[in-house]
Amino acid sequence: MHMRNVKVTLIALSLVSGSVSAQGKTLREGDRFMCSWGAGTAARAQELKLSGVSLYAARQKIQTYKFNKSWMRMMAMGITEQTYNSSSRLKPPAVRQSFYEECVRYKLARK
Question: Does the keyword Signal apply (predicted)?
C-alpha cells in the first residue's frame, strides 16, 4: 500500500475511534483492535487482488459479511478499495504487518 492510502485509511479509522486521551504513549485496547482488524482487512483485500478477483466482486463479498460494529462495513469497503487502487504486489502477510505498524504509529503520534 502506498503511504498516502494508509494515511487516508488511518484518518478514517481515527474518526471512527473518537477522541483519544492524550495521557501517555500507550495504545488503547480499542485502538489496538482497530489496527489489527484493519490490517486483517487489508491483507484479505490484497489476497483477493493478487488472486485476480475484481474490485466489484470483492465489494460484493464484503456485502455478505456479518460485522460486529456499525463502522466496520464502510471501513472494510474503504480499505479494500485503497488496497485495489495501490500498485503494491506485496504478499498479504506483509500488507498486514505494514498496515498494523503504520496504524499503531499513527495512533501513538496522535496522543
Answer: yes
CA distances for 72 relative to 11, 22, 37, 91, angstroms? 15, 25, 9, 23
For residue 71, the one-letter residue type is W
End-to-end CA distance of the chain: 24
Distance CA 79, CA 86 (A): 11
Q: 31, 13 in Cβ contact below 8 A?
A: no
What's the pLDDT tens digit per position in 42-72? Answer: 999 999 999 999 999 999 999 999 999 999 9
Q: What pLDDT shows up at residue 110?
A: 83
Query: Which has the closest alpha carbon to 16: 78, 62, 97, 66?
Result: 78
Q: Which residues contact 91 (CB under 8 A, 6 or more apart)?
A: 46, 50
Q: Provide DSSP, 44-57.
A: HHHHHHHTT--HHH
Residues contacting residue 48 through CB under 8 Å, at least 6 positions apart:
57, 58, 61, 80
What span, in angstroms and rounded, lies between the C-alpha atoms of 109 and 53?
35
